[in-house]
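Hi Prof. W.,

I finally got the Sulfur carrier protein FdhD prediction working! I wasn't sure whether to trim anything, so I left the full sequence exactly as given:
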Amino acid sequence: MGRVTERRRVLRIRDGAVSTRPDTLVAEEPLEIRLNGRPLAITMRTPGDDFALAAGFLVSEGVLAAASDLRNIVYCAGATSDGSNTYNVVDVSTAPGVVLPEFGLERNVYTSSSCGLCGKASLDAVRTTTRWPIADTPPVRVTPGLLACLPERLRAAQRVFDRTGGLHAAALFTEDGELLDTREDVGRHNAVDKLVGRALQNGDLPLSRTILMVSGRASFELAQKAVMAGVPVLAAVSAPSSLAVDLAAETGLTLVGFLRGGSMNVYAGEDRIALPEAAPGTEPASRS
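And this is what came out:
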């Protein structure tokens, strides 16, 4: 699929000089996700990795937990009058015996590129449906110095951002800071879904020894997706929302925000942060 970027004519003004030129923009198109032939959700996304996006979305919804839960994913006829394939509709078929959660498949959730799963803001729902409670996973310890290196490593992996300036990114790192995978999309939650979907397809769930790094803020939806995939540490370059912090505290997720240079705020799960020993004569860092 070669629709990640598009070209548009722009009027450019620089220090009083006016010119016209083509500009490269990030593409944004709707993707309808169907589950076993029935419409489930519509999300605005950057085309590419659509199957992984759909699979990751269904992990966060509690539908899929392993590659064996997935029978196949296919593109199907789009919404054009002639019935041609627009490559904007995917149908996910689950394997026989997969029990679906109790939600109405006719809800046709609209997921924008900025809001994530609007309206699904239940802490109890996430806590009770996750297959891999973070508190039960092997302990992961990361240093502030390692976390401080991640934004630059994420930025260096953003290939399309360099051409457009209009994409968010999400990356998975090992607890030692090794980059495992990175995905870009017009929506932060879509980039995370693409990461999680790839992990599901590769048989790598749960992601219990990884760090999820995201550009921008950490919303409830991103914290939800991290918890549902078994990720123990979520780091963001900007602020978390109050509900994201509540969810992190409820589930044991380590949530780091405003990760810029050597500065960061740890909002929950500070027990996974390996703080340096206090120098003689100084007060130790508080964990309260």
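The helical segments are 50-60, 123-129, 144-156, 159-164, 188-201, 220-228, 242-251. Does that look reasonable to you?

Thanks,
D.
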